[in-house]
Amino acid sequence: MIVVIGSINMDLVMRVPRMPHPGETLSGGVFQTIPGGKGANQAVACARLSRQRGNVAMIACLGDDAFGAQLRAALRHEAIDDTHVHTIAGMSSGVAAISVDDNGQNSIALAAGANAALLPAHIDAAQDLIAQAHVVVLQLESPMATVAHAIRLAHGMGKIVVLNPAPAQTLPTTLLRQLTYLIPNEIEAAMLVGQTATTLEDDSEVDAVIARLREIGCARILVTLGAKGVRAALANGIQHFTAQPANPIDTTAAGDTFIGGFVAALADGESEEAAIDFGQRAAASSVARVGAQTSIPYRRDLLPAAN
Hints:
Layout (H helix, E strand, L loop, with lengths): L1 E4 L3 E7 L14 E7 L1 H12 L6 E8 L2 H12 L3 E8 L5 E7 L5 E6 L8 H6 L1 H6 L2 E4 L5 H13 L3 E4 L9 H4 L4 E2 L3 H7 L10 H14 L3 E5 L5 E5 L2 E5 L12 H14 L4 H15 L21
Parallel strand pairs: 1-4, 1-8, 2-6, 4-5, 8-9, 9-10, 10-11
Antiparallel strand pairs: 2-3, 6-7, 11-12, 12-13
């Protein structure tokens, strides 16, 4: 089983010809509401890309609003166990306002809503579920104290612990040392070692950041580089995995899709290298469609290569 601990949002998506300038009103947009949130996106990606239906569960919080009901229904539609998805009275569900331009690039503003109400007590209440897990997946759209508590618990149980450190922020070394896999993008990786949030220019800069993360004690590191692929520090050293060809329309949730594909393949017993390749094929497929969960492919979409 795969347990995903994290955020659930309703994405309010506006497609625009270009990003508006500060103070500018830009006409011509197209609006959609699409289920999202990094936690839910990764859970849906795991569920759709796994060989076994019904082997994914979430631990999360929703508001007691209309969005909350829709978001819970979206999880159930994917056969994701929502037993530990709590409805918080008097709170709104998380919302993300997303603008996507004609080049497929996006900008996102978040309102955490009920995601901020996920507490260590919710993790403790789900200990039996976590004990059944093969892999536990987390991100940073939940309170840091809750994320740290969940990592300690899952690590103590001997689980494979995967952290996507997004949104980017610095993290304590004690937490990083408890991870099995750290999966940042290049900006997040740079921030973790105290560098300014910026794009890393070449493989040597990425490798320098990876080396510092390994010195801290991270066991395995996968730095996602978008169209440039993945730079991975595994047992056999640093390897480069070239990105799959893609025609991007919308990059929203591409990283979440990669993580979901990687984790699903790993839980299905694939090697790390095969899991990275599968995650990249899934991500390449996702950028050809609009939205977060609406863009995530099903395993059958990647056949026959992923049989």
